[in-house]
Design a protein that fits this description.
Chain lengths: ~625, ~260
């Protein structure tokens, strides 16, 4: 049998993995629950980072590495981050060569803008729909390989699980056609999961409806380690909605947008009639250096505190102003057109003239499937090593938001598109190396193994089609979301997490009493959902458990019971010996990955040292943005 | 009569074909998607009969993926940006008619992606390795290309086109406009002839009947009629080039067109 590769998911990470495989002449099957061009990467707005340094600021990939590691409070293995930041300029050039309509300078060069967590203009962008434009570029390249016959697309197919042989290696996948509900097993020499994040576990988030995290949940149940589940980013600026919360890109602030609330509590005046000296620009006031462009976790906590603790939100509620109305409308249309349209379309207010009302919303999972890497003594990634992006299951790879590798405890804006593409660029070649090393010894996948796996899944769905209980699965899903929003977002409290853990256990018990709602075999979305729901409950359970166990505050994970250590007022951290001792003690105990393993009795979470901290590229330092 | 707090929704269902009416609680900021979600959580018709949740496609819910396109009160658009407060009642939902029905509100738009293959809608790069920066481009060019590049293959332009029917082969405005997009890229222009050839012959740009419905229906405001006019001119020029340079083309060493 010729070599055969499977990529699950057709967002940026998946498509770049496909391109690297096809470019090497390999046959690839790509599975996606939607036509790949409709993947969630389209929702990314602001841009993609790369220290191209065209603005005379002396930017350099090393500074990008430092901003990224510090942004994530050093909870990331360092060589992959270094590899990513060093590859970033050439990735942006590659996308430009593919035809992405990046915004330009007057000389016809790529333009770059500011983003959070850095002081440099480092973000290339295509209006305010950069993710869409990048995805389309990769989609077009993959279509070219598809036309050549190297790539086969299985669109409207859902990954159900990977196939394990006697030596616990991955030998393929089982997938279901979401139109005919037919279940099939597919053999592969290596499989890469590029299935995105689990935002829908939180019900409403900035994520697409397809971001259930179901593929990750099932892979975790089948033995893949899921790391740092507790780190879920809540984006500071989104429009609350009935069906989802719509992101208002950080680029609005990168282009000069300002966050404020009226200084007078309960001020009823229209925002435009409140004079500037009666507006409280609380981020600029507290963080004079970074201002509105502090990292997302910091901005989100400040907005939360202003609204919830101090009652200073607009009309006393959960909202603050994101104001771009001082920027000329022509500039807004050129650089932020996409989000201007979204706000106008969904809120019926023109943000070019009226400040937007926004509030934080769940956005991105830093955690995901644990991945290995291989680097030399200087921390440079070894090209083509089969260990890059490899999960703990031999032959199973992960790339994109579904991996855990690049963002530590908090992701910087415009690093996600980059990490997806970089992970695909190293993951594809790693799969080829793995297959080369293992193919002759492993031989063809036995048909009995494939048939056994298919039958097991057919059996599970036969059971689901017969579920006639009283519980509506979509109601359980909605309640799961409410529970997760309440207990595992911006502020985490152990007693609430304990209650939520019981809540999830109850929901798992109720799952068994679900009604499948539809027994047909044509686009039976509720049967597919019943299966996804269980996998989501498993991820929710793990997020809660890992959150409960991490008794510290780091990045997006914030427990007031265990606050961030702070230096004494007026002192620099390094000059405050007491603070430095406390900071170091905290790192000694907690600067570790949480490794989640599935057991029948619930998640087992263990802390594991970061390999690269033994010989770090950059020694951890206190994280401050004052 | 229903209470003002109730919303009446009529959905064209399939398997078997029928209309179903639902009464759901009217919620602030509702859109067609949030209403469909309400029905999922309680799939009971207005006359109290249990039914299956309607099938529909959705993903991004912010009008950048194109998934949730359907006919809403007889007009093709994305369900996510169809705000209930701006719709007349009862709200009627029907699948797109110009594509094979799969079930309920879901259709198969594969032919749109196949059309992108036909016109070679890509820049044929040499490889993903490091080849340095791309070609410089004027900001004005980028602004034109960006708008063309926001096409999300949703199918609104085909749905409203009188030339598109099961019995016709017309490729439709979306793919024609993509040829303009790639032919206006400095590298893409090197293969302009290949794409123009994709627009010739059966179902090509000459089949456009100039009804101009497409440009009205496009949710992204893409200047589709300008794209069609320009590509019609370019294919005519290409046909002349093909004729006059046929000897060079045979030899394989003449201008690529």
């Amino acid at each position: 049998m010729p070599e055969r590769y499977i990529v699950v998911g057709g967002g940026l990470a998946g498509l770049m993995t496909v391109i690297k495989l096809a470019e090497a002449g390999k046959r690839v099957d790509v599975f996606s629950i939607v036509p790949v061009k409709r993947s969630h990467s389209v929702c990314a707005q602001g841009g993609i980072n790369g220290a191209v340094n065209t603005k005379g600021e002396g930017d350099h990939p090393d500074i990008h590495v430092k901003d990224t590691l510090k942004g994530g409070d050093f909870l990331a293995e360092q060589p992959p981050v270094k590899g990513m930041c060093y590859a970033a300029p050439q990735i942006i050039y590659l996308l430009d060569r593919m035809g992405v309509p990046f915004n330009r300078t007057s000389e016809g060069l790529l333009d770059f803008r500011r983003f959070g967590g850095t002081l440099h203009h480092r973000t290339a962008f295509a209006g305010a729909s950069t993710g869409q434009q990048l995805l389309y570029a990769l989609d077009e390249q993959v279509r070219r390989y598809e036309a050549d016959g190297l790539v086969r697309k299985f669109e409207y197919w859902e990954y159900l699980g990977f196939i394990k042989d006697d030596s616990a290696s991955c030998r393929g996948i089982v997938a279901m056609d979401l139109r005919t509900m037919e279940i099939q097993a597919f053999a592969a020499d290596a499989v890469c999961l590029c299935t995105g994040g689990p935002g829908i576990v939180y019900g409403r988030s900035t994520n697409s409806t397809i971001n259930t995290g179901s593929a990750n949940g099932r892979s975790y149940m089948d033995g893949a380690v899921y790391a740092n589940a507790e780190f879920v980013q809540v984006h500071p600026t989104a429009i609350p909605g009935e069906d989802k919360h719509r992101l208002m890109s950080e680029s609005a602030r990168g282009e000069g947008g300002r966050i404020w609330v009226p200084k007078n509590k309960g001020d009823k005046r229209a925002p435009k009639s409140i004079p500037e000296n009666e507006r409280w620009f609380f981020l600029e006031e507290k963080y004079p250096h970074y201002g509105n462009l502090v990292p997302r976790d910091v901005a989100t906590r400040e907005i939360f505190a202003v609204c919830r603790d101090q009652g200073m939100g607009i009309d006393g509620g959960d909202a603050v102003y994101l104001d771009v109305s001082h920027i000329p409308a022509a500039t807004l249309d050129k650089k932020l057109g996409g989000i201007m349209e979204i706000y106008e379309k969904f809120q019926g207010v023109d943000p070019r003239h009226e400040p937007m009302k926004i509030f934080p919303a769940v956005h991105y999972s830093m955690g995901g499937l644990w991945c290995d890497y291989e680097a030399d003594a200087k921390g440079n990634m070894i090209a083509g090593s089969p260990r890059q992006q490899s999960t703990n299951i031999p032959g199973l790879y992960a790339a994109g938001e579904c991996d855990y590798a690049y963002h530590g405890a908090n992701r910087l804006g415009a690093n996600s598109l980059l990490s997806c593409i970089y992970a695909g660029m190293v993951g594809g070649p790693a799969m080829i190396s793995y297959a080369k090393n293992n193919m002759s010894s492993k031989g063809d996948v036995p048909s009995s193994l494939l048939e056994g796996a298919r039958k097991q899944w057919q059996g599970r769905f036969d059971t689901i089609y017969k579920m006639e209980g009283s519980e509506n699965p979509y109601v359980i899903g909605q309640q799961m979301g409410e529970l997760m929003i309440k207990s595992a977002t911006v502020v985490k409290v152990n007693s609430q997490l304990d209650a939520a853990l019981s809540g999830i256990a109850e929901m798992k018990a109720r799952w068994a009493k679900c009604n499948v709602l539809d027994t047909g075999r044509t686009v039976n979305q509720s049967a597919a959902y019943v299966n996804q729901l269980w996998n989501m409950l498993e991820i929710a359970h793990l997020i809660l458990k890992a959150s409960r166990l991490r008794d510290e505050s780091r990045g997006s994970h914030y427990k007031p019971e265990f606050p961030f250590p702070k230096p004494k007022a007026g002192k620099k951290p390094q000059d405050d010996a007491e603070f430095m001792a406390a900071w170091k003690a905290r790192n000694d105990k907690w600067l570790k990955n949480s490794m989640g393993s599935w057991t029948p009795d619930g998640p087992r979470v263990e802390l594991a040292e970061l390999q690269s901290l033994k010989n770090p590229i950059l020694a951890p330092e206190p994280r401050h943005y004052d | 009569m229903t209470e003002p707090s109730k919303l009446v929704v009529r959905i064209q269902r399939s398997h078997p074909d029928r209309w179903e009416e639902f009464h759901v609680e009217r919620r602030p900021n509702a859109n067609v998607i949030s209403v469909l979600m309400q029905i999922q959580r309680n799939p009971v018709t207005a006359d109290g009969r249990k039914t299956t949740p309607p099938a529909w496609d959705a993903a991004c819910l912010e009008e950048v993926c194109g998934s949730c396109t359907m006919n809403i009160n007889g007009k093709v658009r994305q369900a996510c940006s169809a705000l209930i407060d701006k719709l007349d009642q009862p709200v009627t939902l029907q699948p797109m008619k110009k594509f094979p029905l799969v079930r309920d509100l879901t259709v198969d738009r594969l032919k749109m992606f196949e059309a992108l293959k036909r016109v070679k809608a890509w820049v044929p790069i040499d490889g993903t390795y490091d080849l340095g920066p791309g070609p410089r481009q004027a900001s004005e060019e980028q602004e034109i290309r960006y708008v063309l590049s926001t096409c999300m293959t949703c199918g609104c332009c085909l749905e409203v086109c009188p030339q598109v029917a099961p019995s016709t082969a017309f490729i439709g405005a979306a793919a024609i406009s993509q040829v303009r997009l790639f032919n206006s890229h400095p590298t893409g222009a090197m293969n302009a002839a290949d794409r123009l050839h994709g627009l010739m012959g059966e179902g090509g740009v000459a089949d456009c009947g100039k009804a101009a419905n497409c440009v009205q229906a496009c949710p992204k405001g893409i200047p589709l009629t300008s794209s069609i006019a320009e590509m019609a001119r370019e294919t005519t020029k290409q046909a002349l080039r093909d004729f006059f340079f046929r000897d060079e083309r045979k030899g394989g060493s003449g201008p690529a067109g």
